[in-house]
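sorry for the late reply, my laptop died twice this morning and i had to redo everyting from scratch. anyway the thing you sent over, i finally got around to it. pasting the sequence first so we're on the same page, its 139 residues, then the predicted structure underneath. double check i copied it right bc i was rushing
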Amino acid sequence: MIAWLIALPVLVAAFAVTRRLMRRRSPAALRSILAADGALFAGALALLLVALNGGSAHADTAAAAQGSGSGSAALIGAAIAVAGASIGAAIAVAYTGAAAIAAMSERPELFGRAMVIVGLAEGIAIYGLVVAIILIGKS
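ok and here's the structure:
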């Protein structure tokens, strides 16, 4: 638990630095952003390993550690499923929504077809929620 409290200010600071670097459009800024993203990925991976193995360090028995480790792995998997599906759906809706609005500005009768395409893009997020519910049910 303490690792998350230590990592939160680091993540906020890295986000702020990345936002400032995004305003500059130079190759050096892009390299800095990629380096910061790599460092954040490594830190997130280390936190994930601590979260998965942290139960065994403080548990009374090995059986309790095994049970809590698999349950936390399922919950982390559910979080990753929801996050990935939501980000994917957001990207899909951004592109399809922009294209739908552009098409409807020229031909308003395409409203029904455009909304179906945008709705299909939203379905990606629902699939992530279904996977998360299945994983939470198994934990």
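The helical segments are 2-23, 27-58, 62-106, 111-138.
thats about all i looked at so far, will dig more tmrw
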